[in-house]
Design goal:
This protein is about 55% helix and about 20% strand. With about 400 residues, the chain is an alpha/beta fold. Among the domains are: about 1-95, no CATH class; about 250-330, no CATH class. Helix 7 (about 205-220) packs parallel to helix 8 (about 235-240).
């Protein structure tokens, strides 16, 4: 009978929601009320109207609080204790990246950035407006989390670093600049990946990369086995200065694009099929031999392309030094480029960032969540393989 009564009550409640102007928002508001009541009762040590010896506080009415969600804006009646305060957990535990995006919206308004565009952005999130006090509260917490993540201590050894850069439009001193954002991911000795840095710079140069690597070393990084990146001259020069003894793997995907730039359009498909075979060979010797055959075959037809291939071939085959590791993992920057696409998906919503701090706050907040997912997921590379390679390196030294 009790089950029947609860079923009838639920049906009545659902019909009540269906009659609301926004049924989903009404259901969410009801759920928030139930969660607040359960949490607040636990905090006080007694339910509403309950006499209890374990009670440690008393109720003192309610206060209205605006709560912006993806479904829309609602006004919660938050219970108040006589002493102190109470903020519902689902308000304080809002996802960092969403809170950062809210902060970007407000900063854009303050800085006078395309009001119509920001209006559309806010409404797409179901947010009508954000108070300055709300933003101040969010910003304070986010800045602390972002600062802690960006300056945290690093491990001494990272077998692999993936390094790449993307460009974002950021307003700086009244001007919109196309800034280089350096992103570094690292492979830990336990086989999991981590996001080590996201650093906006005014340019992509040897000096900026040197600053990036110096900051990693200042945070505790001592040794790197392999750095995977494109062939930016400044990046390569900085790798060789910063990580003596490390190998540099030229991203095979970027390398193939460099070569294909010198192939006529009508020949690209057939030539690309031949070219890819270089990096599918079972070992270093076979790859070099096959590349030699390709160069001999096409030397007269595509001399410039073959010149590029010959000059960069050795750097594109460094992953063969670690034959125990799947070449798909360490022969290109595909992994970090997928991460960059995810970053772009978030930043494209904003377009032009009102300042550097707002960009760092939004992207880092998102990357913290991404990094946490990586740390709890399956190993990217088997830790036993990495430790065996480490042992072999020590014995060979």
């Amino acid at each position: 009978m009790a089950h029947l009564n609860s079923t009838v009550s639920l049906e009545k409640m659902l019909f009540q929601f269906l009659n609301a102007p926004d049924p989903m928002l009404a259901m969410l508001e009801w759920l928030c009320d139930q969660l607040m009541e359960a949490e607040f009762s636990a905090k006080l040590g007694a339910d509403k109207h309950e006499r209890s010896e374990s009670r440690n506080e008393y109720r003192a009415g309610f206060r209205p609080r605006r709560f912006d969600t993806r479904m829309g804006t609602m006004y919660l009646m938050v219970p108040k204790p006589r002493k102190g305060g109470y903020i519902p957990f689902f308000v304080t535990e809002r996802k960092r990246s969403e809170a950062a995006l809210m902060n970007v919206i407000q900063e854009a308004f303050v800085n006078g950035v395309s009001t119509r565009k920001i209006d559309r952005l806010a409404k797409s999130l179901g947010i009508h407006s954000i108070s300055r006090s709300q933003v101040s509260e969010i910003t304070k917490e986010l800045n602390a989390q972002v600062g802690e993540f960006r300056n945290r201590k690093l491990e001494p050894v990272y077998p692999v670093l993936w390094v790449d850069a993307l460009y974002e439009k950021i307003r700086d001193n009244g001007h919109v600049r196309n800034m280089a954002v350096h992103v570094v991911c690292g492979l830990r000795m336990d086989g999991t990946r981590d996001i080590l840095a996201v650093e906006p710079m005014y340019e992509e140069s040897e000096a900026s990369y040197q600053h990036l690597f110096d900051s990693l070393k200042a945070r505790g990084m001592e040794s790197v086995w392999l750095v995977v990146s494109d062939a930016h001259k400044g990046l390569v020069a900085s790798v060789r200065k910063s990580f003596v003894g490390a190998s540099w793997q030229r991203c095979k995907v970027h390398f193939m694009r460099n070569i294909m730039a010198h192939i006529p359009a009508k020949e690209k498909a057939s030539f690309a099929a031949r070219l890819k075979q270089i990096w599918t060979q079972p070992d270093y010797e076979s790859a070099v031999k096959y590349a030699g055959m390709v160069m001999d075959e096409y030397e007269n037809r595509f001399p410039k392309a073959m010149e590029v291939l010959e000059a960069g071939l050795e750097d594109s085959l460094q992953y063969f030094q670690y034959e125990q590791i799947s070449s798909r993992r360490i022969s290109s920057t595909n992994m970090i480029e997928r991460l960059n696409l995810e970053i772009r998906r978030r930043t494209n919503v904003v377009g032009i960032f009102p300042n550097m701090d707002s960009y760092i706050r939004l992207v880092t907040s998102y990357l913290i969540e991404y990094s946490e997912d990586w740390s709890t997921s399956r190993s990217y590379i088997d830790a036993k393989v990495l430790h065996q390679i480490a042992t072999d390196r020590i014995q060979a030294a």
